[in-house]
Amino acid sequence: MSELYPDCDPYGTADRLTEAERAPILRLRAVLENEIKPLVAEYWEKGEFPYQIAPSLYGLNLMTPDEIDGAPRSLYHGFRIFELARTDASMATFYTAQAGLFRTTCRVGASPEQFAELDPKITSFETKGVFCLTEPDHGSDIAGGLASTAERQGDEWIINGAKRWIGGAFTADYLAVFARDVADGQVKAFLVDRERPV
Asked: Which DSSP category does 36 fall into?
């Protein structure tokens, strides 16, 4: 079995991947090398993101690969991110905003029934989402500095505040917005339709 990272894996960590875990990483590598790597320098200089590459990434089914029986291990997820980042850090951020931050927020915060309905749409990118924590005056200080508030009024929640540096927000269908509930002081996440009027 050939080494996946002969120049940067001195402890042979990637050797712990199974053949089933290696297969989607190698599929990803082929797409990165052939379709994405040739574009990244040009788009970096332009200060733009090459969104035309998105369908190629989406079609790889990297979150729930067919080759892997059951839920993929953290080791696989780590190397998936590494493979993206070794081509371009922006690619890793772009994909992981959906596969890590948004998906995890929905998994942890939704009811089992809600997540069962949402997850196939998230993993297929039919539904795209982002993680909205960072604020202009408080960064990502969820413990003490989070200023966005949420207040229940009847059957609705009213969210007040501002978010900043939310990568992918303008292409998302839903925003996972973190705000502090004024009733109990607890930080909660709210799934907000991006097109909802403000």
From this structure: I
Query: What structural domains and CATH numbers belong to the chain?
Result: 13-123 (1.10.540.10), 129-193 (2.40.110.10)
* In the chain, % of residues over pLDDT 90: 87
Residues 6+ away with beta carbon under 8 Å from 173: 127, 128, 129, 193, 194
Residue with tokens 């005056």: 137
pTM here? 0.89
Cβ-based burial of 99 (10 A; exposed 0-12, middle 13-18, buried ≥19): buried
164-198 pLDDT, tens digit per residue, is 989 888 889 999 999 999 999 999 999 999 998 87
Distances (CA, A) of 139 to 6, 158, 186: 38, 22, 18
